[in-house]
Amino acid sequence: MNVALAARRADELDALAADVEAEYGVDTLVVPTDVTDEEAVEQLVAETVDTFGGLDVVVANAGTGTERGVGIDELDTEQYRTVMEVNTDGMFFTTRAAVPHLEESAGTIVFVGSFAGKFPRSGSPVYAGTKWWTRGFALSLAAQVGPDEIGVTVINPSEVRTEFGKEYRDEAELSKQRYDPGEITEPADIAAAVVFAAQQEPPNAVTEIDLYRRDKFEML
């Protein structure tokens, strides 16, 4: 299976593409994309289909958040709109462009949600709200396109060791330092969940996967 990689940073995409090609022996396509730009998302899907002949699996993973602990009365409008546009508009634009091609292949779309999309998060209510939206959108989409043999999965992880929050460097670095190996979900664990969802063949689909730390509920 060949892979199209899309994000805003072309240099990091190029490096990732080289790693994927070397490790898995597949062809890659790099398409720098801002998911809040609907024309850019449509071009991403069109270029992928033109290059590889279709879509089998789409992973909607783009996301951002607000600075944790900022009171709702202190959150500026620009930050609010950025989170809403990336986390909700981006998911919608991606889905709208991909669904016709996934119908042709009886493919799968995987949304990366969050623990925050199932349980209240006092430190980041706007981010949490977008993840409740993601989960509701994914489950409702599954009801709409399931009869067309499109699989829809939403994966809800708790803490994951990523660059998430890099807009707030101190917070991102603190997150990296807070957990030792084995104490936090790794990106490879999320990837394995995506693969599991994508491997399901019609008429089956895995609608939802919760991937939490085993002690997550003790931390609440």
Please explain how this structure is put together.
- It is a single chain.
- This protein is of the alpha/beta class and 220 residues long.
- It has one domain: NAD(P)-binding Rossmann-like Domain (Rossmann fold), CATH 3.40.50.
- Helices cover 48% and strands 12% of the residues.
- It has helices at 10-24, 38-52, 77-105, 125-145, 169-178, 187-198, 216-219; strands at 3-5, 28-30, 57-60, 108-112, 151-157, 208-211.
- A four-stranded parallel sheet has the order 3-4-5-6, with helices on both faces. Strands 1-2 form a two-stranded parallel sheet.
- Helix 3 (77-105) packs parallel to helix 4.
- The N and C termini lie far apart (40 Å).
- The relative contact order is 0.12.
- The mean pLDDT is 92.
Provide key terms for this protein.
220 residues, alpha/beta, Rossmann fold, four-stranded parallel sheet, two-stranded parallel ribbon, 7 helices, 48% helix
Short description:
The protein has helices at 10-24, 38-52, 77-105, 125-145, 169-178, 187-198, 216-219, and strands at 3-5, 28-30, 57-60, 108-112, 151-157, 208-211. It is α/β, with parallel strands linked by helices and 220 residues long. The chain has one domain (54-219): NAD(P)-binding Rossmann-like Domain (Rossmann fold).
